[in-house]
């Protein structure tokens, strides 16, 4: 059931340092994957707490604090995902890689779940992640206000099974995306490139129209979870 929390969080004010076997989790819930080429797949979503970025369109402001959520052991998180028995697990945030033990968590999840995706802003090195993990690299556009955080060195680490995502705020972002794909030869990575309209900022029909007109090497992505449950719903 979407939004159903699995465990009672231990009281915690976020001030104590965590041992390497623990990670700060904002929420875990069962839903469908709303984005990526696996959109529509039953999925356990593990949302880690904390992000150093402040994107203008961020739709998870509740998960930005590094003192939010509660610390859980990697074993407990893995057990929770195993119990759900879904074919897919998404680790998202916040910015998951901002927490040092995240790669260990991802490997643990890959041991028990057929497919594990990681959604990351790419402001951290994605090469620290197990080769079984499908990385979704959310390349920040100028409209996000955080494009200077992009690490272009991550692009050369993209591999089959990874995906690239651009959230588009306006026509300038769209043109910037095309130029970034060309400049960094992103089609060579074999990672599908998905262009997603920023919710409430740009009409999906506008972005669809530009894509039809220009025939770029991208596909339009809509956020299923917002279409199904509404854009303000959380934990779904
Ligand atoms: S990287 Fe993601 S979680 Fe962090 S501010 Fe941007 S949209 Fe929000």
Structure commentary:
The chain has 236 residues and is an alpha/beta fold. It has a single domain (22-229), classed as Aldolase class I (TIM Barrel, Alpha-Beta Barrel). It has helices spanning 74-84, 102-112, 171-183, 204-214, 224-229; strands at 22-32, 42-48, 70-73, 88-92, 115-120, 134-139, 163-168, 193-197, 219-220. Strand 8, helix 4 and strand 9 (219-220) form a beta-alpha-beta unit. Helix 1 runs parallel beside helix 2. It is globular, with a radius of gyration of 17 Å. Residues 1-9 have low confidence and may be disordered. It binds iron/sulfur cluster (SF4). Residues 51, 53-55, 58, 60, 93-95, 121 line the site of iron/sulfur cluster. Iron/sulfur cluster binds at residues 51, 53-55, 58, 60, 93-95, 121.
Salient structural properties:
binds iron/sulfur cluster; 9-stranded mixed β-sheet; 22% strand; disordered N terminus; 5 helices; 236 residues; TIM Barrel
Q: What's this entry about, in short?
A:
The chain is an alpha/beta fold and 236 residues long. Helix content is 22%, strand content 22%. Bound molecules: iron/sulfur cluster.
List the SSEs and their pairings:
Blueprint: E1 22-32, E2 42-48, E3 70-73, H1 74-84, E4 88-92, H2 102-112, E5 115-120, E6 134-139, E7 163-168, H3 171-183, E8 193-197, H4 204-214, E9 219-220, H5 224-229
Query: SSE string, helix = H, strand = E?
Result: EEEHEHEEEHEHEH
CATH class: Alpha Beta
The appropriate CATH architecture is Alpha-Beta Barrel
The largest beta-sheet arranges its strands as 3-1-2-4-5-6-7-8-9
Helix content range? 10-25%
Percent strand: 15-25%
Write down the overall mean pLDDT: 92
């Amino acid at each position: 059931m979407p939004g159903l929390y699995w465990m009672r969080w231990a009281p915690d004010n976020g001030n104590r340092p965590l041992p390497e076997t623990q990670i700060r989790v904002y929420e875990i819930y069962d839903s469908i994957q709303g984005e990526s080429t696996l959109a529509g797949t039953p999925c356990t979503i593990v949302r880690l707490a904390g992000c150093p970025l402040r994107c203008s369109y961020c739709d998870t402001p509740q998960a930005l604090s590094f003192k939010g959520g509660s610390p859980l052991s990697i074993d407990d998180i893995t057990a929770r995902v195993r119990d759900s028995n879904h074919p897919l697990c998404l680790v998202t945030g916040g910015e998951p890689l901002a927490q040092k033990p995240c790669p260990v968590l991802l490997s643990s999840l890959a041991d028990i779940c057929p497919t594990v995706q990681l959604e990351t802003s790419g402001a951290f090195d994605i090469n620290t992640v197990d080769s079984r993990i499908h990385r979704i690299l959310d390349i920040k556009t100028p409209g996000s206000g955080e494009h200077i955080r992009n690490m272009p060195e991550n692009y050369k680490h993209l591999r089959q099974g990874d995906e690239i995502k651009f959230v588009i705020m306006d026509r300038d972002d769209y043109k910037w995306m095309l130029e970034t794909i060309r400049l960094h030869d992103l089609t060579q990575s074999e990672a599908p490139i998905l262009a997603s309209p920023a919710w409430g900022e740009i009409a999906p029909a506008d972005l669809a129209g530009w894509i039809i007109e220009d025939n770029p090497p991208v596909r339009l992505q809509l956020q299923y979870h917002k279409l199904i449950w509404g854009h303000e719903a959380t934990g779904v």
